[in-house]
Design a protein that fits this description.
With 568 residues, the protein is mostly helical. The protein contains 33 helices and 2 strands. Among the domains are: 118 residues; 97 residues, no CATH class. A two-stranded antiparallel sheet has the order 1-2. Helix 26 packs parallel to helix 31.
Length: 568
């Protein structure tokens, strides 16, 4: 190939002439002629990107190549294998889409158990090229799914080498991935082969990884029907993530992905699904290698079965995650804090006691001078959600912080003042509008808690709230200002996972649960300008108009007040 690229102008016409001069059908019993044509076709395929504008491959496909694939005598299998490979090289370069149905029929024929094994394997590789092509159409391929899956399964049970089985299974998995939800009516046909394959692959861990990966693609594709597979899926997942099983070392990553997809796809939980938490938590405690996926699974559990998860596993969950935070880098801490934030969003009464210790630890870290921006942002978000749910909990935690390790009491006002000062400083470093609004809502909520440090920092609090309003308020057609962070029922779903490598963006039940939670989120359902206005009025009623105007409002810069009144 290096020679061809270097001397393209010299070699291209000669190769084209050689290819055209050997277009005639050769005697399959003449091994020398067959091998010569095999070599020519090899060059024909390797130079596809160089020859696409010289050779009319569509014409070759319809005449010579189809004829050679129909031959079944002598050494025809040599050319069949080469032609199958040749088509795979050219179809991504130049093959008219109208010939795709004929190509799929040809591949089904080449995958037939009566064909030579080398021919079947070459056809498998060409099938992979066909479904990975830019011009691939799911609608045109779907009718060939069942015979293709059947042929691939027959090939799987025929081959002996594990690597070969892996390659075939990866093609099956990729086929399901590309077709996406369209495979739903056919999932029974796809699944009937996998249980036996799983049983027969007891000693082949890598093959089992491929089986789990294929199951993951099927679960994502059939969505809510995944619940019907619970008796099959749960034992496989349990086996994959149970640290008492030797195979978990090889299977845990794919097993966790399957578990995550299974939970995300189901509309409701079941006891078997919840029982897998008993294996997930020890796995995360034993190793943090797949911590991010594990925490995403826990978040999915919290959304699908909040009461059961928090009641039955809450203590164990919080104990594990708080201990893990001591040894994690910022990325891992952010993932854990995001899980805590989801738990608070669900807003169950039984989480209050569990969150007290977590909140205190986060306040300590926040005030200790921690410099990680992402971590600080998540800590402040967590604290803000607690305040919006119940400000009294925040006050209780601050009071508890005043008790030092030696039993001496620190001044409450000094501690609260330090927290708010750090809060205001960190808030200016945050650029995400949703986070800034959340923090602003919490600060506005604290205005009426009647604590001295809050009133002393009134000017700074109002300033940062107005700056946040400047970021999120948008002028409407009628000339009024509206909060751009508000969501309605027809807003697009919020998804934590993007299948960027897939043709389909899978719409799961988990997406819907996230969307419903977002619709209840104060960030998306409370107009910040109106909430701030109501808190200022409440504060004025608490301390009296004279003190409110003379002591508090008078300290705020006139420019800030002008902007504030604009939104009010």
């Amino acid at each position: 190939m290096s020679l061809f690229h270097e001397f393209r102008e010299l070699l291209t016409p000669r190769l084209a002439a050689t290819i055209e001069s050997n277009r005639e059908f050769v005697d399959p019993n003449n091994l020398e002629a067959v091998l010569k044509k095999d070599a020519i076709y090899n060059a024909f395929g390797l130079t596809a990107f160089e020859m696409f504008d010289i050779i009319n491959f569509d014409d070759w496909f319809n005449t010579t190549l189809r004829q050679e694939l129909m031959e079944s005598h002598g050494h025809s299998r040599v050319l069949k294998r080469r032609v199958a490979w040749l088509i795979g090289q050219w179809l991504t370069v130049r093959l008219n889409p109208e010939y795709r149905p004929e190509l799929y029929n040809i591949l089904i024929g080449l995958l037939n158990p009566e064909q030579d094994m080398a021919v079947r394997l070459a056809a498998t590789s060409t099938l992979r090229c066909a479904i990975d092509d830019f011009d691939f159409s799911s609608e045109h391929f779907i009718e060939y799914l069942e015979p293709m899956a059947f042929s691939l399964y027959k090939l799987l049970v025929s081959v002996r080498e594990c690597d070969t089985k892996l390659n075939v299974l990866h093609v099956m998995s990729f086929m399901v991935e590309r077709l996406g939800p369209m495979v739903e009516p056919y999932f029974d046909s796809l699944l009937q082969y996998l249980p036996k394959l799983w049983t027969d692959s007891d000693d082949h861990h890598m093959l089992r990884c491929a089986i789990i990966s294929t199951l993951t693609q099927i679960v994502r594709a059939i969505r809510t029907k995944s619940a019907e597979l619970t008796p099959f899926l749960v034992p496989i997942i349990r086996y994959s993530v149970d640290i008492k099983e030797k195979a978990y070392i090889y299977l845990q990553e794919d097993g966790l992905e399957l578990l995550l997809s299974y939970i995300e796809s189901c509309a409701t939980y079941n006891d078997d699904m919840l029982s897998l938490i008993n294996y997930l938590l020890p796995l995360l405690d034993y190793s943090t290698e797949h911590l991010k996926t594990g925490l995403m699974i826990l978040e999915a559990y919290v959304l699908i079965a909040p009461d059961r998860v928090i009641t039955e596993y809450g203590t164990q969950l919080f104990s594990l995650t708080t201990s893990l935070m001591n040894d994690l880098k910022d990325e891992g801490i952010v993932c854990i804090l995001s899980l805590y934030e989801t738990i608070i969003k669900v807003n169950l009464p039984q989480t209050i006691e569990l969150m007290m210790a977590v909140l205190g630890q986060n306040l300590k870290c926040l005030c200790s001078g921690e410099i990680g921006l992402a971590v600080n942002s998540c800590r402040l978000s967590l604290i803000s959600r607690v305040i919006l749910n119940d400000p009294s909990i925040f006050i209780k935690v601050v009071e508890h912080l005043c008790m030092t390790e030696n039993g001496n009491l620190m001044n409450f006002d000094n501690v609260l003042n330090r927290i708010i000062e750090v809060w205001l400083e960190r808030m200016n470093q945050i650029v995400q509008n949703d986070r800034r609004k959340l923090l602003g809502l919490a600060l506005a909520s604290l205005l009426t808690c009647q604590k001295k440090p809050i009133l002393e920092l009134f000017k700074e609090i109002i300033t940062v709230c107005v700056e946040t309003l400047n970021d999120i308020m948008r002028k409407t057609d009628d000339g009024l200002y509206a909060d751009s962070m508000l969501m309605t029922d027809d807003c697009s779903n919020v998804s934590s996972r993007a299948n960027s490598e897939c043709e389909y963006q899978y719409e799961t039940e988990h997406n819907e649960r996230q969307r419903c939670l977002s619709l209840k989120d104060p960030v998306h359902c409370i107009p910040f300008h109106k909430y701030l206005q109501s808190q200022l009025l409440a504060l004025q009623n608490q301390i009296g108009e004279q003190q409110f105007q003379g002591v508090l409002i008078s300290k705020v810069d006139s420019d800030i007040l002008e902007q504030l009144y604009l939104y009010m």
